[in-house]
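re the bet — no i am not wrong, look at it urself. input seq straight from the record:
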Amino acid sequence: MTGHYNLHVLIFAGKKDIFAGMITWQEVTLRLFLAAIMGGAVGIDRQRYEWAAGLRTHMLVCLGSALIMIVSAYGFAGVQMEGHIALDPSRVAAQVVSGIGFLGAGTILFLKHEVVKGLTTAAGLWTVAGIGLAVGGGLYFAAGAATVLVLIILVIIKPYKKKLIVERRQTEIQLKLNRKNISLSQLEDILSTNNIAYNHLKFSNLKEDNIYAVEIRVNKSMSNKTLLSCVESLNNTNGIHEVEFKPAGI
């Protein structure tokens, strides 16, 4: 009889330990609310620049991550009561880290000249997902500190970025020419005479009859002196109406 009573005590004690790991609905509401607020704080900056992922997207990502973290940590407490079952509380939440990549990829735009836009927004979404996981796990200080640092990176550091880092791109020569007066072979001869090595040559039709826009991207090894000499030769060539020289970094 005593043994039977002790068994019930042990079972009851085990259930009590499991339910002690649960959180109240007030705590769940608080965590979800804080996640939405922190995600929105980051999303406001992205919304100002009208990126694909703005205020609501960042709020939803952070809120969803917090919810998944709560489910991962506390959603399977009832299952643990069934026999000897051990669960990894981080297993479900870990999928957010890899899954957020699909959403981040949708914010990245590949423009002409191999220019990529949206990487900062994608990185922001990835970080916001981490903030949501932190809030969902009850790590309020870590989530708050991360939110502040993200805002510093996006808002405060941005104006100083151009002063700290000189952005480099390839030098370009842009022309407007009349195909009746100058041929492609003549243009190639002028470039060869001036020792201009290029890796990109693009022609575009303009609205004017027989007028073409030509874009030439030259190799980085070319000096400005050599390029200016070529620009002068092009400008003095019959059939070329306009020459524009864009040095790297401008």
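see?? The CA atoms of residues 65 and 184 lie 57 Å apart. told u. also DSSP finds ten helices and six strands in the chain. so pay up
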